[in-house]
């Protein structure tokens, strides 16, 4: 049976009312543009015939009650339904402190946006006839109270029970942490692994078993489309960091069962007080990139001496901005072969060695 719908994704909003902005000199995020940039996006989205909006986590700067309340009230005014899941910034502590809400409080703020049962930090809901959303919680706390990105056993069991009951529905999954690697060896890289779900491989296997092909994530702040064993992880960059992207997507299934997803990406070009947001934001990221680059070059797998890392880092000033932009093509022929080859791996290059530019605007053909 034919099925067609249109939706949007905006991720990692980091909403911060002006008086709540938590400033520190090395931050990559321009949280001061969060609200005007979000308003700019909503102005565009309300002109479209959208069926729903997905927001895959990090809704607020750092879990502040005022920022959660502002977003809750703003989403309630939209002409289309919105659905959210928590990011690590939304529930940074298990018990409430002077800055942030408690982990258990989150669903109560967003009862109209997926959490009909606020006593449970994950949910499933029918988006449209024949279309089901599963919103997962990827934030757990270990015995020391440290936050980690993982689905606990109880949630895994619930998820399998939900999937086993699905009959003749398209299932979309939304979760904050990445479930497919978007960076080279992301699961094991000492800098990148924290953006992956610890038990990502188990989740991919479960989704594969039940023929679930589409997962929408955030957290990494880059535009990227990655696939593992037929499971596509479409991660969307952050509202508050370069290139300030968002996506509109259209799903189509014809009467023969052929199905595809069309992805179109957009950028917030300007907001009040930031008339040239794209250029300023890229420079902002580059200005703060040196410590990040030194870590990248001196940690495994490169393990460069610090003096060599300091020599190479300035040439990589826009490295992360280029990756965040999506469809990156990276080559530094002046670098030593090992370093040049490693940096190339971060680009949009298929296993065949040819560019594969699918991160921003593309059509994904899905299995029947």
Number of domains: 2
SS element count, helices: 10
Sequence of secondary-structure elements: EHEHEHEEEEHEHEEEEEHHHHHE
The CATH superfamily of the largest domain is known as Metallo-dependent phosphatases
Low-confidence runs of at least 5 consecutive residues: none
Q: Percent range for helical residues?
A: 25-40%
Q: What would CATH call the class of the largest domain?
A: Alpha Beta
Nearest-integer average pLDDT = 96
Could you tell me how far the N terminus lies from the C terminus, measured between alpha carbons in angstroms? Answer: 12 Å
Question: Might you state the CATH topology name of the largest domain?
Answer: Purple Acid Phosphatase, chain A, domain 2
The SS-based structural class is: alpha/beta
Q: Over the alpha carbons, how many angstroms does the gyration radius reach?
A: 20 Å
Sketch the major β-sheet.
6 strands, mixed
What global shape is seen?
globular
CATH second-level architecture of the largest domain: 4-Layer Sandwich
Spatial strand arrangement across the major sheet: 3-2-1-12-13-14
Name the beta content range. 15-25%
The number of distinct β-strands equals 14
């Amino acid at each position: 049976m034919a099925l067609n719908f249109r939706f949007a994704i905006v991720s990692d909003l980091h909403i911060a009312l002006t008086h709540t902005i938590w400033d520190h000199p090395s931050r990559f995020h321009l949280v001061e543009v969060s609200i005007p940039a979000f308003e700019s996006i909503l102005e565009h989205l309300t002109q479209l015939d959208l069926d729903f909006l997905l927001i895959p986590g990090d809704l607020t700067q750092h879990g502040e009650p005022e920022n959660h309340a502002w977003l809750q009230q703003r989403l309630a005014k939209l002409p289309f339904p919105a659905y959210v899941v928590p990011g690590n910034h939304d529930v940074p502590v298990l018990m409430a402190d002077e800055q942030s809400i408690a982990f258990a409080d989150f669903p109560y703020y967003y009862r109209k946006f997926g959490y009909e049962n606020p006593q449970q930090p994950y949910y499933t809901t029918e988006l449209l006839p024949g279309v089901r959303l599963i919103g997962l919680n990827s934030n757990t706390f270990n015995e020391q109270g440290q936050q980690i990105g993982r689905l606990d056993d109880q949630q895994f069991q619930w998820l399998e029970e939900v999937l086993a009951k699905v009959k003749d529905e398209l299932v979309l999954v939304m979760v904050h942490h990445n479930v497919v690697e978007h960076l080279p060896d992301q699961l094991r890289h000492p800098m990148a692994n924290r953006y992956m779900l610890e038990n990502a491989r188990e989740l991919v296997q479960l989704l594969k078993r039940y023929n679930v092909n589409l997962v929408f994530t955030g957290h990494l702040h880059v535009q990227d489309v990655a696939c593992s064993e037929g499971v596509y992880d479409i991660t969307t960059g952050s509202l508050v960091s370069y290139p300030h992207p968002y996506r509109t997507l259209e799903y189509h299934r014809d009467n023969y069962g052929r199905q595809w997803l069309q992805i179109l990406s957009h950028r917030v070009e300007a907001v009040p007080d930031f008339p040239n947001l794209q250029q300023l934001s890229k420079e902002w990221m580059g200005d703060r990139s040196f410590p990040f680059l030194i870590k990248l070059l001196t940690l495994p797998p490169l393990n460069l001496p610090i003096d060599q890392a300091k020599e190479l880092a300035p040439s990589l000033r826009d490295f992360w901005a280029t990756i965040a932009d999506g469809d990156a093509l990276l080559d530094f022929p002046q670098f030593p072969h090992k370093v040049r080859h490693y940096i190339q791996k971060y680009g949009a290059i298929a296993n065949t060695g040819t560019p594969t530019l699918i991160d921003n605007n593309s059509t994904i053909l899905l299995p029947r």
